[in-house]
Amino acid sequence: MTLYLDSEDISFVSVEYFKSVALPPLREPIDISKIKDSLQRDPAIWKRGTGRWFAFKNKLWGSGTSEEKAFKPLSDIFDAVIREASKVSDAPVKLRFASRPVVSPATERTDATYSDAYLLLVDKKSVDTQGGKKIQAKHSDSGSWDDIVVSFEFKMSEGDAEGEDCEKRVIQSLHHIMYSDPCRRATFGITTEDAQMKFWFTCRAATLVSKPFDFFMEPEHLIYFCCCLAFANVHELGWDPTIRSVCVGGETQYDITVCTDEGKNLVYQTTKVISAFSAKALRGNGTRVFEARLKSQDGKLVKDAELVVLKDTWRDCDLDREDKILEQIFADLRAKQGINQEAEARKYFLTVLAAGNVMVDGKIDGTDSLLCMTDLPADCTSYPLKPTRTGDLPSLPPLPSPAKRSTVLHRTHSRLVFKEVCQPIYEVRSLDLVFETLQDARKALQFMHCVNWVDRDVNVANVLCAGSTGKLADLEYAKCMDSTTSHRQLQMETPDFVACEVEAQKYLFIPPTRWSWLHEHSMPSFRFNPLHDMESLVWIPTWTLFYHVGQEHSSPSVDQIRWFHILFPGYSRLGAFVGSFDPWVLPPSFHRAAYEVYDMHQALLIAYTESEKEMLPAQEPAYTEPLAQLNSILSECIASAVEYSRGVCLFSPRAVLTS
User: I need a labelling partner for 551 at 20 to 30 A (CA). Which of 72, 135, 427, 462 fits?
Assistant: First the structure.
């Protein structure tokens, strides 16, 4: 598992702002000032002479004690606060404090990182897949990551390096919870540096950290934090009540409710995770794809149901749901091309069996129910944390960090069920099947383009193989070019498949003489067009060939690695696109297919040049004829590559490549 940290992903806000937007509402009649006064009058809780919590008898920095011993008094403080609040609140206490365990919290996580302390659910959500043997009695406080509400990290000495490490550890904990547990919608954290404390929060729309405060001098902030969370409903603590962990055959699976637009309540039980790549980003659509079976419909058990695919995703709030977009595309095909063409096109897209928005607490679930704001405050800044990578290298290009914004783009939680159980193209291990799948994805794009739709997010995760047929999926970003609706610039989740012009947000193939003329008149505004979809498609076989090796347990050559990084640097690669690549650095069994991919690149460059050579002000490129010619060439190249690839297998390299 890999975590990409970037300060632009984290908003640095005041403590009061954090409390007002990120925490659940304080339960009435809890009064923070009365709790503070009562605690400070109790000599067993507060040392008036020194103005300190009694539990902290010594200074923290330089004490020479471990984090566990130095901050174990936080448990006493939490218990004292909750006891006082419970005097006036009838709500049950949902959380308990656990100090650093002897063993890491139970999880499928492969590294040994764990928090210094945490607040855990009293009523566990985790399931024991090992018959009670996973958590021994003497390690009972190790708990489970699936039950952690708040992760704590403590800095024990002065120095920027340790402080930054402390912050990275808490972000890693937040990330792990959001990535590993499909039941999570949000989670919280606390970091301390001596007496300075910060609050942390993350959901699929944003990650916030509060400015530091002295929890000795301003104890009311910590009291408020504890009271808001300890008495909150479970869904307010970040859990999704429509997903339930269950133990099936000694493994964790999930019962997931799909509430359809027609009012049906369908419960599906997962059998395996197909993809959770998009869930690796703290902020984003968090898409997870499961193989599943229908378990019950409107409370009635269903037996012997067929395997299906269930997709759980957080789409941008200004975008339509994927099933709605598909029906719009098919309606346009039916109207403009006829019912036969519509039927033919449906072969290359997924069949929707059920769809609906997730309902939580009687409302459509979205990040706006977890984070109660849209505009970030004027004094909000990006948190000064150096970007870094931790953990193992990924087998796919890394997720980018979305651009810094002054507003939070909220997301809507939805689920779709598809008939076809597919395999993403990056998992296909027969090179001929890769190209056959690619050919069908090209046909899907051709159908979309002929009715003025563009996909805008073609990549290795949403080109799928269903038996012998390729499918194009994940159409959340698809848009009709005739639409007058404006969408913000997309932040695509797989940057190595984004067209060069889309990344630059300008036309790059206008001849120099034409540039001069346009400068004198009016430069055309950039707009996504079908050629950009086709470029993304061409990058897929390029990545496939330069990432993989031709023999099991082998490593790519030095030259192959060098070319991989030239072609997939993770940022602008226009030079590599307009230049050429060397197929001879690849395994010999890949050579003939690689030359076909090279020809595809050259045909794409010609299409761009032809479409932009006579650009006019306020007009888009004349791509219609170049696109038709490009489709013809790509069809031939892919067909040839299929034949050249018969019997050729793909293997993941021993040393994993990354951009």
Answer: 462
Query: Taking Cα atoms as reference points, which of 156, 135, 200 lies closest to residue 68?
Result: 156
pLDDT band at 113 (very low <50, low <70, confident <90, very high): low
Rg (alpha carbons) of the chain, rounded to whole number: 27
Distance CA 439, CA 637 (A): 10
pLDDT per residue over 462-472, tens digit each?
999 999 999 99
CA–CA distance, 453 with 631 (Å, rounded to integer): 16
Neighbours of 480 (CB within 10 A): 16
The token pair at 501 is: 């012009």
- Gap between the Cα atoms of 347 and 235, Å rounded: 40
Rounded to 10 degrees, what is the CA torsion of 650, 1, 463, 536? -90
How many percent of the chain have pLDDT more than 70? 85
Mean pLDDT (whole number) for 344-350: 97
Both tokens assigned to 412: 């809507």
Cα-based distances in Å from 230 to 47, 215, 458, 568, 624: 25, 18, 44, 47, 61
Q: Is the pTM above the cut of 0.85? A: yes
> Taking residues 172-183, what's their average pLDDT?
94
Of 200, 204, 207, give the one whose Cα is nearest residue 153. 200
- Cα–Cα distance, 28 to 188 (Å, whole number): 22
Contact present, 241 and 40 (Cβ < 8 Å): no
Write the secondary structure of 9-36 as one string of H (helix), E (strand) and C (coil): HEEEECHHHHHHHHCCCCCCCCCHHHHH
Residue 244, both tokens: 């339930």
Reported confidence tier of residue 112, pLDDT bands at 50, 70, 90: very low
Residue 475 tokens read as: 């159409």
Residue 414: CA count within 13 A, CB half-sphere: 22
Average pLDDT score, the chain: 87
The separation between the first and the last C-alpha atoms of the chain, rounded to the nearest angstrom, is: 16
Q: 478-483 long-range CB contacts below 8 Å, 24 or more apart?
A: 478/325, 478/329, 478/448, 478/453, 478/454, 479/453, 479/454, 479/528, 480/328, 480/332, 480/452, 480/453, 481/452, 481/453, 481/454, 481/527, 481/529, 482/452
Amino acid (1-letter code) at residue 389: R
Q: Quick one: tokens of 224?
A: 């408020």
Residue 224 identity:
Y
Q: What is residue 184's predicted lDDT score, i.e. its pLDDT?
A: 97
